[in-house]
Amino acid sequence: MNTKTMTAVRATLAALTLAVPVTLGVASARDLTPSTDVIFVNATGQVGLVDVYVGGKLVVRNLFPGTRTSFANSVPAGRHEVVVTRAGDGMSRAVLRKTMEFVGGQERAMTFSFDGNGEPTLKAEKASAD
After folding, report:
1. pLDDT tens by residue, the chain, 130 residues
2. Which of 18, 52, 110, 123 has a beta carbon 3.0–4.6 Å from 60's, enabling a disulfide?
3. Eight-state DSSP code of residue 71
4. What is the pTM of this model?
5. Phi, psi angles (nearest 5°) of residue 26
6. Which residues share a beta bridge with 57?
7. Which helix (H) or strand (E) holds 42?
8. For 69, what's the count of Cα atoms within 13 Å in the CB-facing half-sphere?
9. Which among 41, 45, 77, 78 is positioned nearest to 60, based on CA atoms?
Protein backbone atom coordinates (compact mmCIF):
# COMPACT_ATOMS: atom_id res chain seq x y z
CA MET A 1 0.00 0.00 0.00
CA ASN A 2 1.16 3.48 -0.72
CA THR A 3 1.31 6.26 1.87
CA LYS A 4 -1.94 7.92 0.73
CA THR A 5 -3.86 4.66 1.00
CA MET A 6 -2.44 3.90 4.47
CA THR A 7 -3.35 7.41 5.64
CA ALA A 8 -6.89 6.98 4.33
CA VAL A 9 -7.25 3.57 6.03
CA ARG A 10 -5.98 4.95 9.35
CA ALA A 11 -8.35 7.92 9.14
CA THR A 12 -11.31 5.62 8.40
CA LEU A 13 -10.41 3.30 11.30
CA ALA A 14 -10.01 6.26 13.65
CA ALA A 15 -13.43 7.63 12.62
CA LEU A 16 -15.08 4.23 13.15
CA THR A 17 -13.40 3.83 16.54
CA LEU A 18 -14.88 7.16 17.66
CA ALA A 19 -18.32 6.59 16.10
CA VAL A 20 -19.03 3.14 17.55
CA PRO A 21 -19.00 4.11 21.25
CA VAL A 22 -21.18 7.16 20.57
CA THR A 23 -23.74 5.06 18.70
CA LEU A 24 -23.75 2.40 21.42
CA GLY A 25 -24.12 5.09 24.07
CA VAL A 26 -27.26 6.46 22.42
CA ALA A 27 -28.82 3.00 22.13
CA SER A 28 -28.04 2.26 25.76
CA ALA A 29 -29.62 5.50 26.96
CA ARG A 30 -32.81 4.69 25.04
CA ASP A 31 -32.91 1.19 26.58
CA LEU A 32 -32.74 2.71 30.07
CA THR A 33 -35.93 4.77 29.68
CA PRO A 34 -37.75 4.21 32.98
CA SER A 35 -40.96 2.24 32.95
CA THR A 36 -43.27 0.52 35.42
CA ASP A 37 -44.15 -3.15 35.11
CA VAL A 38 -47.87 -3.50 35.78
CA ILE A 39 -50.07 -6.53 36.39
CA PHE A 40 -53.77 -5.75 35.89
CA VAL A 41 -56.40 -7.51 38.02
CA ASN A 42 -60.15 -7.66 37.35
CA ALA A 43 -61.45 -8.31 40.88
CA THR A 44 -65.14 -7.92 40.04
CA GLY A 45 -67.72 -9.66 37.94
CA GLN A 46 -70.06 -6.67 37.84
CA VAL A 47 -69.10 -5.65 34.31
CA GLY A 48 -67.84 -8.95 32.93
CA LEU A 49 -64.75 -8.93 30.74
CA VAL A 50 -62.84 -5.63 30.69
CA ASP A 51 -60.37 -3.82 28.47
CA VAL A 52 -57.74 -1.51 29.99
CA TYR A 53 -56.22 1.51 28.25
CA VAL A 54 -53.19 3.45 29.51
CA GLY A 55 -52.40 6.79 27.92
CA GLY A 56 -54.87 6.06 25.12
CA LYS A 57 -53.28 2.72 24.23
CA LEU A 58 -55.09 -0.60 24.67
CA VAL A 59 -52.83 -2.65 26.97
CA VAL A 60 -55.22 -5.39 28.18
CA ARG A 61 -58.04 -6.96 26.20
CA ASN A 62 -60.82 -9.22 27.49
CA LEU A 63 -59.62 -9.63 31.08
CA PHE A 64 -61.95 -12.13 32.74
CA PRO A 65 -63.53 -11.41 36.15
CA GLY A 66 -61.46 -12.76 39.04
CA THR A 67 -58.28 -12.99 36.97
CA ARG A 68 -55.09 -11.06 36.36
CA THR A 69 -52.87 -10.58 33.37
CA SER A 70 -50.43 -13.44 32.84
CA PHE A 71 -47.47 -11.10 32.47
CA ALA A 72 -46.60 -7.52 33.35
CA ASN A 73 -47.23 -4.70 30.90
CA SER A 74 -44.46 -2.14 30.61
CA VAL A 75 -45.89 1.37 31.09
CA PRO A 76 -43.68 4.44 30.53
CA ALA A 77 -42.98 6.44 33.68
CA GLY A 78 -45.13 9.53 34.15
CA ARG A 79 -48.77 10.53 34.58
CA HIS A 80 -51.22 8.61 32.40
CA GLU A 81 -54.96 8.30 32.21
CA VAL A 82 -56.07 4.73 32.88
CA VAL A 83 -59.42 3.79 31.37
CA VAL A 84 -61.34 0.59 32.14
CA THR A 85 -64.19 -0.36 29.79
CA ARG A 86 -66.44 -3.33 29.20
CA ALA A 87 -64.62 -5.50 26.68
CA GLY A 88 -65.03 -4.08 23.19
CA ASP A 89 -66.77 -0.83 24.24
CA GLY A 90 -63.85 1.51 23.52
CA MET A 91 -62.58 4.43 25.56
CA SER A 92 -65.61 6.67 24.99
CA ARG A 93 -67.77 4.34 27.10
CA ALA A 94 -65.52 4.07 30.13
CA VAL A 95 -66.60 2.36 33.33
CA LEU A 96 -63.71 4.12 35.09
CA ARG A 97 -61.23 6.90 34.21
CA LYS A 98 -58.39 7.72 36.55
CA THR A 99 -55.13 9.63 36.09
CA MET A 100 -52.30 7.82 37.84
CA GLU A 101 -48.57 8.35 38.34
CA PHE A 102 -46.28 5.55 37.13
CA VAL A 103 -42.81 5.56 38.69
CA GLY A 104 -40.03 3.99 36.66
CA GLY A 105 -38.37 0.84 37.96
CA GLN A 106 -41.35 -0.28 40.02
CA GLU A 107 -43.62 -3.30 39.79
CA ARG A 108 -47.30 -2.64 40.51
CA ALA A 109 -50.56 -4.57 40.59
CA MET A 110 -53.53 -2.45 39.53
CA THR A 111 -56.81 -3.87 40.80
CA PHE A 112 -60.16 -2.89 39.29
CA SER A 113 -63.12 -3.43 41.62
CA PHE A 114 -66.15 -1.72 43.13
CA ASP A 115 -66.20 -0.13 46.59
CA GLY A 116 -68.89 -0.55 49.26
CA ASN A 117 -70.96 2.22 47.64
CA GLY A 118 -70.97 0.50 44.25
CA GLU A 119 -68.47 2.95 42.73
CA PRO A 120 -65.71 1.59 40.46
CA THR A 121 -62.19 1.84 41.88
CA LEU A 122 -58.67 1.25 40.65
CA LYS A 123 -55.96 0.70 43.23
CA ALA A 124 -52.23 0.39 42.64
CA GLU A 125 -50.20 -1.75 45.04
CA LYS A 126 -46.73 -3.20 45.09
CA ALA A 127 -46.82 -6.37 43.00
CA SER A 128 -46.23 -9.57 44.92
CA ALA A 129 -44.34 -12.50 43.49
CA ASP A 130 -46.65 -15.50 43.61
Report:
1. 566 655 555 655 455 444 444 434 444 444 566 899 999 999 999 999 999 999 999 999 999 999 999 999 999 999 999 999 999 999 999 999 999 999 999 999 999 999 999 999 999 998 765 5
2. 52
3. S
4. 0.73
5. -65, -45
6. 54
7. strand 35-42
8. 21
9. 41
